[in-house]
Amino acid sequence: MNLDQWCELDERIYVAESDERYKQYAGLKHSERMIEQLAEMKNINAQIFLDTFSSEPRKLFLTAIENIADSSTKKLELKLFNMRNAKIVSSKHRFGKVPVNWSTWRQFNSAQKDPSKRKQVFDEFITKTKYVSPVIKERFRKIGEVYEKHSNKKLDPLDGYLENEKISYSQLIDFVKSMGRQAKKPFQEALADISKKVLGREAEYYDDFYFFRNRVYSDLEREFAGVSPPDQVRRTLEAMQFNLSSIHFDTEAGRTSTLRRYASLCRCQATSGCCTRAKALTLTYRGATTKWATPSMQHR
Known about the structure:
globular; single chain
């Protein structure tokens, strides 16, 4: 297998996995068995890269380790996804006809006018994170082991991220602290101002970003009532010169997909005129033109 063949296979696995994960997070019918099988295929393909091409190109080497870390902990990721909707559930409040859970609490907050009820849900969810935190810790531990194993104890997940982003640890810390210092005062001032205008009081910890966003723009709801998200996405993609004939839009009535999910689906399905990160990196290393890297090619 040469590098082009490896990239082609990696791309096919990536597109298939992205499609199935989209269905999962959009609340559509999906197959966990298929997700696990695709993860195993990704794991095997990443192992083939390490066995065949060793550590070059360097960015593909880092991608291969990342893929092994992700795919080898896929069962834990699926377990977390299911647990957060089964264990982190409100004992008192419902959204629609079912109890509020991790996946619906933002929608609940947007619709709920009584702040005491939003507080009850938030506080209860915080206490119930004890059910999922062990799974998260275990997955992080195993991801760290993968990096250690395949880099001869020279890399951890943060090292891989820093190298991909071409930034040092100290630069990252300085950047984050600098952004925090610059954003803190204007954020606090804006939050206080908006809270007084929208709520008539100071903001509380359970007044989350999504709650404020919906309150701030509530007076525009009627203006957008007749707007079709799929049509908006189509117009945007056409303006960006995408070939829409290769893009599937799931517009079945009754779906709860948001505009972001439509965009995610388009990104996963738009295989004409673009490629995955792996192939794009290969083209870059060979000095080829990067016209393949259309806006549909994003980091996962």
